[in-house]
Amino acid sequence: MKKYLTWALGAFVVFYLLTSPSGAARVVHSALGSLADAGNSLSRFVNAL
What we know:
It comes from Actinoallomurus oryzae. This protein is an all-alpha fold. The protein has two helices and no strands.
């Protein structure tokens, strides 16, 4: 069952990328922005020590 869900999720991601590239770009941009914010927060924390 888990294998089928993984394949279905992968197929959905590919379908989403092919049908809505601008939406996919927003998702990636948002994810990378969140990752950068987390890195900046960690940097501030370490510098405060």
